[in-house]
Amino acid sequence: MSLTAGIDAGTQSVKVVVYDGHARRVVASKSAPLELTSGEDGSREQHPDAWTQAIRQCFANIDSSVRSQIKAIAISGQQHGFVPLDADGEVLAPAKLWCDTSSTAECVEITEAVGGASRCIELAGNPILAGYTASKLPWTRKHRPEAYRRLATILLPHDYLNFWLTGEAFCEYGDASGTGWLDVRRRQWSKEMLRAIDPDRDLSECLPPLVGTAQTFPIRADRAEQLGLSKEIIVATGGGDNMMAAIGTGCVVPGRLVMSLGTSGTLFAYSDTPAVDAAGRWAAFCSSTGGWLPLICTMNCTVATETIAKLFGFSTRDGDSHIAATEPGAGGITLLPFLNGERTPDLPLAKGALTGLTPHNASAANFYRAAMEGATYTLKHGFEAFASAGMQFDHIVLTGGGAGSAAWRQMVADVFNLRVEVPRDVEGAAFGAALQALWSLSNAQGTDLTFADLVDTHVTFDDAHACRPDAERVRAYQEPYQRFLDHLVSVQHIYAA
Prior knowledge:
There is one protein chain. The protein is about 40% helix and about 20% strand. It is α/β, with parallel strands linked by helices. It folds into two domains: about 5-240, Nucleotidyltransferase, domain 5, CATH 3.30.420; about 250-420 and about 465-495, ATPase, nucleotide binding domain (Nucleotidyltransferase, domain 5, 2-Layer Sandwich), CATH 3.30.420.40. The longest helix is centred in the C-terminal third of the chain and has 25 residues, at about 365-390. The radius of gyration is 22 Å and the shape is globular.
């Protein structure tokens, strides 16, 4: 039996999934929590040592008989983070994460240096947004000058974990798309964007080589020993969490739409050609399967429901009962859930805003519903950019932690007026990484396996969790959604960067 493993290093936890491709089933799944260091200035950081320790913990909790049969591994990692290494490969500072908005001013500086947002899109396919890696470099130059002076290698979180596993520094196109300096059309680093980030230094000297998905790397012998794995394991390129989730949900051919309800909310589709929006309404990313992945990302999803649940002293596990006790519209309460700022729409300095309170609707259940609705409406607002560009879909594939909520699944179906399907393996990113590892292993063994064939064989859906829109609730959400949009317009000028 040959097994593959997918490692998803997210914001709140590290997850490891071990998959038996022959039996088509997950044979082990473990997770370990991660903590986040937050600052009032919008900083969000983690030390890479926490990621590697969590990986060790996960593998230690997997039976040795399973570990011994793993033949290939792939890493899924949170996108956009900045991991600075010195010439000896040592980490110079905590990693600044995707949800870090402390470098908002640097986004403006880079954009002005290039000649405006439209020029950024012309050069790289994307504007420079808070959260992207680009602004984290001048921030580090200003606030951690010694670390920046010693900077020798620029890595993303998943790149760092690949480096930790293999001793090789490399970057793949999907994850590289979120840096702000990859020309996504041509799949190469943009020298002009790099000069705008630092005109006094050739940052290309700090960048790892770009590699395609077909490449694999051997695992370091000491890492294999630490994790209880075979020293013959191959390490696939892996990718960003959205790119791996695309594989894990079958989004590798045109016409498929995926929504991930995680710490952040994402909405993405597959394209055979570069999907660049001149207005920058979505992220024009590369996929990790040879195509492109137009993507809407919000900064606040399950963080909103978790915050409200914690505020009122209950668990999100009990959240569905609160939703059942309320009606669409949350009794008139609207929550703009911008607790971490927001990326779609581009409001990195925004704060959460709660409106519509009366003595009669101020209940824990309505607050919780307002949080879930607000997170869903923000994604709906982003989805309308896809629709206006002529993209058409007949259903949504739902993944991420929020997909475990029956109430949330039905809410998505009703708000979007689309059928919802849920993969049997709901941890789409970790499962997608395991599938990419399987693809790499199969091709290393001489099998000409396409990603389309891979997902058609291994991505299955749970009929019990499928939802169809309810016509009455579809109508019931229209007014609260419009109210959300009205409130959004009213605060945009307040929080414009």
